[in-house]
Structures are given as C-alpha cells and as structure tokens.
Amino acid sequence: MEDMVSEVVKDEDPGADFTASVQELLSRVKEMFQQVEYNSAVPLLETAREQAPTDTLVSLLLADAYTFTRGPDDFEEDQGAYDRALALLDEVIEREPDNTLARLRRAAIYAILAPEEKLLNQQRQILDDARGGPYEVIAELELARRYLICGMGSQALVLYKKLEESHDWLAGVLHSEQGVACAISKNFGQAREHFLTAVALTTPEAMAHLQQTSEKLIGEAYWSFWRTVDNLPSRQCQNHAWLAGLYSITGIGPEAREHLSQVLKYLQSAELGSAATVLKRQFVRQMERMFPQLAGEPEVRALKQEIEEL
Predict the structure, then answer these.
(1) Separation CA 70–CA 248 (nearest Å)
(2) Sign of the dihedral through C-alpha 285, 287, 290, 292
(3) Residues 156, 157, 161, 162: is their CA dihedral positive or negative?
(4) What is the DSSP letter of 249?
(5) How many CA atoms does the CB half-sphere of 41 hold within 13 Å?
(6) What is the pLDDT at residue 217?
(7) Fewest C-beta atoms under 10 Å: which of 26, 47, 61, 142?
(8) List of the chain residues with pLDDT < 50
(9) What span, in angstroms and rounded, lies between the C-alpha atoms of 103 and 277?
(10) CA pair distance 305, 310, nearest whole angstrom
C-alpha cells in the first residue's frame, strides 16, 4: 500500500512545525474530544489556527469540532457553524486539491443541509477521482451513505454488497448499514438479519482491525483524536437499538426486550466514557421518531428522564 499518510495528515505528534503553544492547545483539545466536548474545543482550535493558519490537521479538527454530533436542526439554529466548517475545508482543498480526506470530510458536512442532486454529484466526483487510490473504499462507503440520506436504499445496497466482497475488515460496519438500507425500504426481515450478522461480527478482534486500518488511512496524528470514540460498545449499542426497534414493530415481545436490555447494558459500559450521554440521547430520539411503541416502555422513559435531569 502506498504511503497514504504523507498525502493527507503527517504522522508527527502532532506536527514537527508546531510551536509549543500549539502543541499545548492540541493536547487540551484531544482531552476534550475524548470527553465528547466538541463545542468547548472550538475556542482552543480557533486560537491554534490563528497561530498555525495553514496547518491541515488544525483545520480538519476545527471543522469537526463545529459539526460532530450535530444535525440539520442544530444548524438551522446555528448556520454560522455549518458555514465556518465548510469554509475551513474549502481553504484546505484550495491549498491541497488532491487531499481526498479533506474532500470527503467536506462532503460529509455538506450533506447535512445540501440539496440531494448537488450532494450526490459531488460525492460521485470524489469517488471518480479516488479510483485506484487508498481512499477508493472510503469514497464508495461515503457515496453509499449519501444514498441512505437521500432515501435511496436500493442504490446504497449495491455499493455495500460490492464492498463486502473485497473488504472483510469493514464487514460489521457494512452489515449495520445494509440493515439501515433495508429498514428504509421497509424490508424489515432482511434488516433484522443484517443487524444480527453485524452483532456477531463486531468482536474485539474485528474492532481492533477496523481501528488499525482507519489509523493507516488517516494518519496517527488525526486518528489519535478519534481513537476513543469509535469502539465496540458504541457500535453494538446502535446495532441492538435497531434490532429492538425492528422487533417491536410487531409487538413488544421477548426479542425486542432482549435487544433493549443489550442496549442498556452497553450504555453502562465504562469504555464509552462521556460518549454515553450522547448515545443515550441518540437512542431515546431514535425510539421516539422511529419506534414509538418502544419509546413508551419504562426503561426508555427512565432513560429519557435521566437525560433531562443532566
């Protein structure tokens, strides 16, 4: 595999050209990211960017801090954060037009509010440009995700199947996302099968392989800020949440209750750290919007009350 890191974010920790002041700021930012305090990291990263205005790592992290865990409703109230994140990545891409990681991050953020046609055209262009390079697999995965956002589950499934044939390190992720695609298309039986497979494939060994490959793709410097966020409990929590909801469609039976209990177990995992609060909010919101019959269960109501009291 060609040297991917040198093309995107250098492997220094965090960068050979950083001053001691910027080094200190990024050390504090890393702690905040690990505590899921992205909003609190914004002022520190803005200060770091004033001192290192052309550094790619700082700009990527600042764009992430403005947008991570935020959705369309958030940006309708705070359009400035959305625009700032896009502008930061535009500057990186203007300096480094071949920086595929920056283009992928920009497309992912743009997708939050973008019109469908522009969104898909942009993502297809990135994939065309990434063909034959180390980011081709990620560009295909991101295009599949854009199809999901646009409600085009069948198109997403075509890409997921293709990726599944040649990238076993992504198998757990692919089955989870195929489950979402099938659920969007109301193929609930197939959706359950994909999520059950994802649960079986999401093992400690598989997660270690996934994390190692992710680090190789984006570089140790950038990955070090995200290492603690993507873990087995967070992925299994989401898999079981979908399964609980899908089984509850035909009534709150033993299968739905079993997967609900698994969600609650993983939400208590020490490995989640501060991310547990974010996942709890996401779970309650998902149940209320998609599976209201499960949202009324005592365990989910208790979880909602816990969140409201924070």
Answers:
(1) 28
(2) negative
(3) negative
(4) T
(5) 27
(6) 87
(7) 47
(8) 1-16
(9) 30
(10) 9
Give Cα 141 to chain centroid, integer Å.
Answer: 12
The token pair at 36 is: 């899921």
* CA–CA dist 298, 80 (Å, integer): 39
Size (the chain), residues = 310
Return the DSSP state at 12.
Answer: S
- Kindly state the tokens that stand for 87: 């502008």
Evaluate whether 148 touches 181 at the Cβ level (below 8 Å): yes
**Per-residue pLDDT reduced to its tens digit, 11-49:** 444 444 578 899 999 999 999 998 889 999 999 999 999
DSSP-derived letter for residue 274 is: T
User: CA-to-CA distance for 57 and 55, rounded, in angstroms?
Assistant: 6
Angle separating helix axes 254-267 and 232-248, nearest 10 degrees: 160
pLDDT on residue 173:
97
| Residue 156: other Cβ atoms inside 10 A | 26
What whole-number distance in Å separates Cα of residue 62 and Cα of residue 85? Answer: 7
Burial class (CB in 10 A: 0-12, 13-18, 19+), 246: buried
